[in-house]
Design a protein that fits this description.
The chain has 336 residues and is mainly β. It is built from one helix and 28 strands. A hairpin with a 5-residue loop joins β1 and β2. The relative contact order is 0.09.
Length: 336
């Protein structure tokens, strides 16, 4: 009899509880902004053999739990060659891939809908997710670094050096080509700097700044390195007008000369013609006296013979041996 009463009480309890559940809407919702928790009720039996109502909870995360993920066919564990093509895909079907490359979170309003492969031209962070049924999936992030040539270094530290010092450039990246530009510091240089491929030591005859970088296929060019060298107590020349020189024609040369010595100097400006075998075949000179720190202009001209290949201009302080005491300017000779 007692067992029957217990079963009746359990039955009445079940009916009462079921009524409450029905009027309560059977389910409840929490944190409606991001996560939804649904309580589902099922019938079951406890250890005493009584019928009971069991509640189970399932979560739907609107920020991506259980949503398909974005994957890439290129690993970001190590630097990759420049121009590497990255393809994104989904782990399951349905929805669209939204991504960004500026570090922001991928959203339908500000992100990019993935259609074509992404070509890596520089270091980049790709953030991507799947957008499906107005729900954003879990955001995945790929941090790509492009292979870069190591910076250019010089064999001699920046600073004051003796005239004629030779600067060697190098990089630790095997096979990389080095390019450099020269910025003259003793005069206002009005010429446009040109990138020159490095093929040997750079002679420092005047104060100048060397700007160098290195390139290699499949790599990002190295950062630019600058090396500033100052040469004191010397005479500097600069060609004012870079007019072209032709074989068989008379050419006037205008040179700006600066005395950086702290004493007066008697000097001569030499314009010398050389053949293709680097032999001097003709020259002219003009002499002048320069005060300490003085800058002046010296003009002279000559006609280049048919055998002329190039011209050198420099300052000497004695006609014995024609030994330069200044920087040297090399001028090409063209044929008509």
């Amino acid at each position: 009899m007692r067992g029957k009463i217990n079963r009746r009480i359990s039955l009445f309890t079940f009916i009462a509880f079921l009524t409450v559940v029905i009027f309560a809407g059977v389910s409840k919702t929490t944190n409606a902004d991001t996560n939804t928790v649904d309580s589902n009720y099922n019938l079951g039996m406890n250890n005493a053999g009584e019928i009971v109502v069991l509640a189970t909870e399932t979560s739907e995360n609107t920020t991506g739990a259980g949503i398909t993920l974005v994957i890439s066919d290129v690993s970001d564990e190590n630097p990759v060659p420049i121009g590497t093509v990255v393809n994104l895909s989904k782990t399951t079907t349905g929805g669209s891939i939204i991504y960004t490359t500026n570090g922001t979170e991928p959203k339908i309003e500000t992100g990019i809908i993935y259609k074509d492969a992404i070509v890596l031209e520089d270091d980049v962070t790709i953030k991507a997710c799947v957008y499906m049924d107005s729900v954003y999936g879990q955001v995945v992030q790929f941090n790509y670094e492009v292979m870069e040539v190591e910076e250019v270094k010089a064999n001699i530290p920046e600073g004051i050096v003796e005239r004629g010092t030779e600067i060697e450039l190098m990089t630790n990246t095997t096979g990389a080509a080095i390019y450099y530009e020269i910025e003259e510091l003793d005069f206002n240089d009005t010429t446009t700097p040109q990138s020159i491929k490095y093929d040997g030591p750079i002679r420092i005859d005047s104060s100048k700044r060397i700007i160098a970088y290195a390139k290699l296929a499949g790599h990002k060019a190295s950062i630019k390195s600058e090396f500033t060298y100052e040469v004191n107590n010397q005479i500097i020349i600069q060609r004012d007008y870079n007019n072209e020189v032709y074989v068989g024609e008379f050419t006037e040369f205008e040179m700006k000369v600066k005395n950086r010595f702290d004493e007066q100097k008697s000097v001569s400006l030499v314009i010398a013609v050389y053949d293709e075998k680097d032999r001097m075949i003709d020259y002219v000179y003009v002499s002048d006296v320069l005060k300490p720190g003085e800058t002046t202009e010296i003009e002279c001209g000559l006609r280049v013979s048919e055998a002329g290949s190039y011209i050198k201009s420099y300052i000497i302080d004695s006609l014995k041996g024609l030994v330069p005491v200044s920087n040297t300017i090399k001028i090409p000779v063209k044929s008509k």
